[in-house]
Amino acid sequence: MRNLLGPILICLASMAQATDAPASHPGGIVRLDLGPAEAAAPTVRFQGRRVLVVEAARRWQALIGIALDAEPGWLSAEITDAGGRQREQPLAIEAHDYPVQHLRVKNRRHVDPNPEDLARWARERDAQDVAKRAWRDPAPATATLGLPVDGRRSSAFGLRRTFNGEPRNPHSGLDLAVPNGTPVGAPAAGIVSLTGDYFFNGRTVFVDHGHGLISMLCHLSRIDVAVGDRVAAGEIVGRSGATGRATGPHVHWSVFLNGNAIDPDALLGDS
User: Fold this and answer.
1) Which region, left, alpha or beta, applies to residue 10 given φ > 0 means left and ψ of -120 to 50 means alpha?
2) What is the mean pLDDT of residues 180-207?
3) Residue 158 backbone phi and psi in degrees, to 5
4) Which one, 184, 202, 207, 214, has least CB within 10 Å?
5) Phi and psi of 266, rounded to 5°?
6) How many angstroms separate the CA atoms of 133 and 130, rounded?
7) Is pLDDT of 141 > 70?
8) Which CATH number among 2.60.40.1590, 3.30.70.930, 3.40.720.10, 2.60.40.150 corresponds to the domain 2-93?
């Protein structure tokens, strides 16, 4: 009995610690307080990837993006402080129910691509995945983002979508409906890391804000920047449109943290 008591107590202690763990949901952000910003910023890793750490109110804070397909339960982050000491931080992932959206798409190939379309999409996906998961120094001065255009929100983040009655992946961004040709601004300062005209996304611009914080702006009618350009917050990167798989003129804006698409609203007005 005594031999069994030790593991049980350890398990109960671990569970008690976990109940105080920071929490979020699929597509959300775990905000992890790392203590006073007196020493160098700690290094945080989550699922093998570096995590954005910013200073907020004179404290270090990690912003951990949780994948949309994450299962409810427990995950953990690895924290290494300025002195090299490491610890594991439990994270609670809570269930979240996103609504369903039904859309009608005129171009049938954007619902059921043919083999050539699928081969093109695979090539484009690889290049875009690299841009979504990039890590670039230096870190952004702030994690605050601004809307790329001032428009009606036509599709929220996370919607479980059907196209012409057929289920598809959840919506990994925020759609802003604006007239064709509306100027589209960079959500924050950064470097243009990728541009292209893609099968599903249409004309697209990626802006790398630093340390794994990435914006993707899709369905543009025109691109006004080139790879390697440095842009300021609000600087025009293109014009809105309906290229790719779109039901009308709008801007699709995705935000990525440590390679995961997260709800852009989570960083609007925050630092």
Assistant:
1) alpha
2) 97
3) 85, -5
4) 202
5) -65, -20
6) 5
7) yes
8) 2.60.40.1590
